[in-house]
Amino acid sequence: MKKILVLAVMLIGTTTFAQNKNAKTTMEVDGVCLMCKSRIEKACLKTKGVKSAVWNVKTHELKLIYDDRKTSIETIQNSVTNAGHDTKELKATEEAYAKVHPCCRYRDVAVLEDHKVDEEHDHKD
Amino acid sequence: MKKILYIILMLPVFSTSQEKITGMIMEANEKNEPIGLAGANVYWLGTSIGVVTDIDGNFSISYSEEYTKLVISYIGFKTDTLTVTKPKTVHHWLQPTDNLDEVTITSRKQATAKSYMQASNVFTVSSDELLKAACCNLSESFETNPSIDVNFADAITGTRQIKMLGLTSPYILIATENIPSIRGASQAFGLSFIPGTWVSSIQITKGAGSVVNGYESIAGQINAELVKPTTDNTLFVNLFGNVAGRFELNTHINTKVSDRWSTGLYLHGNAHNEKHDVNNDNFMDMPMYNQINMMNRWQYTDTEKGFVSFINLKFLNDEKQTGQLDFNPNTDKLTTNSWGSEIDTKRYEISGKFGYVNPEIPYQSLGVQTAFSNHKQVSYFGLNQYDITQNSLYANAIYNSIISDSRHKIKTGVSYTYDHYDEFVNTMSYERTEYSVGAFFEYNYDNLDRLNLTAGVRVDNHNLLGAFVTPRLHARYTPWEKSALRASIGRGKRSANIFAENQKIFSTSRVINIIDSSGSVYGLDPEVAWNYGVSFLQGFNLFKRKADITLDYYKTDFENQVVVDFENPQEVSFYNLDGKSYANSLQLEFNYNVFQYFDLRMAYKYYDVQTQYNSDKLEKPLVPKHRLFANASYEIYEKEGAGQWKFDVTYNWLGEQRFSSTASNPLQYQLAAYTPTLATLNAQVTKVFSPKFEVYLGGENITNVRQNNPVLGADNPFGSNFDTTFVYGPVFGSNYYAGLRFKIK
């Protein structure tokens, strides 16, 4: 009986504290252009533990793969907002927002005219 | 509520009319009920004029004639672009995105896209660019490309030869879908064995290129992606004819076989059965030929599991006849009755590609490519006989992943190649087997900002070339906005197929002379070269329109080379290099979008290609030192219904080119030291009636420029001064063609 209990507790333990080194999540991040894309992705990738970050200009969806033993969604969100981009849950400070390039002021300015399709570095290989 | 991204300009400066487009954006659903989407973005492509739909999904946006593309986007939905040519009411349903990440890129695609991002100097030629010229096969598909020179290999076979950085195609690794395909036996005619309609895009890399596809590339890499059963039209028919009597037919049929299997059948036939002799030298200006070319592709796609694979079967039969007008193969073959030549090629190919992308972890993937081909050419040129059979096997496995995060990508894998050659040259037989096993590793670092570099190395063990290391490095640095400074360095090594690559030598009375240095291939040592290059690209706006300028400088230095020496007009000699051999090339290119739908591309090229021959250090024959190139393209979009006109003009100017020496010939068979300069003009008009149907009409060499005496010693083809290799320009003069394309999506 005791044994079963111990085993059960252990099992619960392993399920709740299971660590995933390829955790996946998506979040909505505000931005307007490919410069934003690289700013957002760079901010994520420079966060220790983030393996892949792909932000979609059209849908504003940020797809993340990260090692949750080394980082968390909150940490990544902080990195994004520190780079000056709003997420759904967390808004960038005015200070951080002021640092983004004038033509990326997603809160109040029109889209850049000169977005280059061929700058989209979705490597096909 | 979503943020408003697109501010309505209160006073559009250039919109004088007060016309508006109104409408409603809805969420797609099975019953097509009008469920309005609030907060969707509606804007004119390429402008800052946009609105957001209201709570019911309604919107109203100002309209002016210069706007034609209305983009509708909303997070979680596919972005759609509508072509709007008059003020009207728009009711549009947006489709939710599934997990497949399908994003339609909505700007007008440049026909040739240069990358600002990649480490290597790559540009992609899209199918649109390929439609700008007659482009019946791959050898003709570079007509509108300034980086690749196309010229005739000789005066009689009509074979086009391509050059890059001043070096001929054997120094370029030419692959189809990343499997090296035009090499060995198919080197001379292989480009004409890939029909233009099969090609969906071409990637051209200047410099040594990646190590993933092998060690043979020296000047560059050309990769042709072919049409795929899942994305090509259900039915495609292309008919082509020209006034010289060349006819071509291309048919593609693609169909889905099951959920995961699709197949495509691609048939190509061409024929030219008229004899032309515009220069009255009794020699046909172009060969008579028939070609049947078939490909069957099977594609397997399983997006859930991340599998995609292709199986391709190809068959080719090509027959050419050329030579004197009165030559009759049945009675005159290999006799001195009359000079003639026949070249028959049969080729079978089977290849497979297998790809796996981990659906959970998209940066991990595994690809395996295999190809087997059997290539058999039986031919004679006057009294010279040349047969070659090549059996070739290629296998390559590539694993892609990252180190720590996606700024550090790696590619690694193993390759195996096997080639068996059987050759018969007049009275001599040559047979050899080459095989190699190799492993490669390529690391790419992208700091997502100013720097991107690719460092690759491969180690191969080859039965005739020995064990050797091939290092390659490409880097891109962006010093400021819209610029790219690139540098590359790399090594390449290859065994020269001296006969297959130089088949024009058989259409001469030259004695073939191999100066044996006890090497492993024809007694010659393999060719080894280093290629170094720098390139600078700068995009800018000129009078508010996009422009870019590129300056390239590449240098190829041969450590060893199989020198092809034509300097004695009575013989052709092959020997290993003793001294210096290099090819330096400078290219300045300017692209400008003069006004909407009018694009201009201009280029100047300078070549300095010199080799130490036994006699002297000389310029490589038939390479112009200077070349100018210009291409203009204009499109007119008509009213809705997608009618469209496309106009294209290409101008080429070649400076003088050195003729190999004819000084020891009798006076009447002597040529000048240099060729005259040459300017040619091509033009094409395409009328698109609908997405299903278009016709095109074009002229090649409109100004009717011709080289007068392309065949030296045509009066006595069995005499000792007969030579068809002194060709620097068009033999036939102007030619006009027309064609149609019919497609069902």
Can you tell me about this structure?
- The complex is a heterodimer of chains A (125) and B (745).
- Chain A is of the alpha+beta class and 125 residues long.
- Chain A has 4 helices and 3 strands, in the order αβαββαα.
- Chain A has a single domain, classed as Alpha-Beta Plaits (2-Layer Sandwich), CATH 3.30.70.
- Chain A has a 3-stranded antiparallel sheet with strand order 1-3-2, covered by helices on one side.
- The relative contact order of chain A is 0.17.
- Chain B is mainly β.
- Chain B folds into 2 domains: 92 residues, Carboxypeptidase-like, regulatory domain (Immunoglobulin-like, Sandwich), CATH 2.60.40.1120; 519 residues, TonB-dependent receptor, beta-barrel domain (Maltoporin, Chain A).
- Chain B contains 3 helices and 42 strands.
- In chain B, strand 24 and strand 25 form a beta hairpin.
- Chain B starts with 19 loop residues before the first strand and ends with a strand.
- Chains A and B meet through helix 2 and strand 2 of A and strand 25 of B.
- Chain B: Keywords: Cell outer membrane, Membrane, Receptor, Signal, TonB box, Transmembrane, Transmembrane beta strand, Transport.
Overall structural class of chain B, as computed from helix and strand content, comes to mainly beta
Provide the gyration radius of chain B in Å: 28 Å
The assigned CATH architecture of chain A is 2-Layer Sandwich
The CATH topology name of chain A reads Alpha-Beta Plaits
Would you identify the CATH H-level superfamily of the largest domain in chain B?
Answer: TonB-dependent receptor, beta-barrel domain
Uncertain runs of chain A: 13-17, 109-125
